[in-house]
């Protein structure tokens, strides 16, 4: 079916996808702050007014791109939680993956890293959704550990919250950046800290 034959809803979804793909490419090349709606529209060969038909503001586009990026990160974490191994091993891989995602973005996707940092500092709605999803994943792993007799947490929800709070120094982009830029810590040093804190959390969860 051609675009002209598609129903209005399908055409609208396709246009939103094109806008998001173009915006994400521009965000990665020149940064989300420097990218304007006019830039996105020009790249798509449409007017800014047409972009605003689908997104009411530049902030809405920012949130949509952040959601795309965070969604890909969360999918990786979901796969680890649902994967093989003991609950302890999956928590190790989960905490390590969350940290490595920050490292990959910091050194390879700097402009996108800056956007996520701003999203957290400015409390974008998409961040709250992402954090809730990651918390839920950690809780599922802890619940599976309880069911297997690996863990003995009376309240899995509270245990997941404590576990995630314990790892926040290596999960928050601004704190990770401060460790690298201000304290001069290397990724290897930070990885060792993640591993050490993970074992501390696991000891707290065990019977």
Structural summary, described in words:
The protein is mostly helical. It has two domains: 8-56, Homeodomain-like (Arc Repressor Mutant, subunit A), CATH 1.10.10; 59-205, Orthogonal Bundle (Tetracycline Repressor, domain 2), CATH 1.10.357.10. Helices cover 79% and strands 0% of the residues. The protein has helices spanning 8-30, 37-44, 48-54, 58-81, 87-108, 110-121, 125-148, 156-166, 168-171, 173-181, 187-205. Helix 4 crosses helix 6 (110-121). The longest helix has 24 residues, at 58-81.
How do you describe this structure in short?
By secondary structure, this protein is mostly helical.
List the helices and strands and how they pair.
Blueprint: H1 8-30, H2 37-44, H3 48-54, H4 58-81, H5 87-108, H6 110-121, H7 125-148, H8 156-166, H9 168-171, H10 173-181, H11 187-205
Helix pairs in contact: 1-2, 1-4, 2-3, 4-5, 4-6, 4-7, 5-6, 5-7, 5-11, 7-8
Amount of beta strand: under 5%
CATH homologous superfamily caption of the largest domain: Tetracycline Repressor, domain 2
Helix/strand-derived category reads mainly alpha
Counting DSSP H or I runs of 4 or more residues, the number of helices is 11
Order of helices and strands: HHHHHHHHHHH
Query: What is the arithmetic mean of pLDDT?
Result: 93
Core attributes:
207 residues; mainly alpha; Arc Repressor Mutant, subunit A; Tetracycline Repressor, domain 2; 2 domains; 11 helices
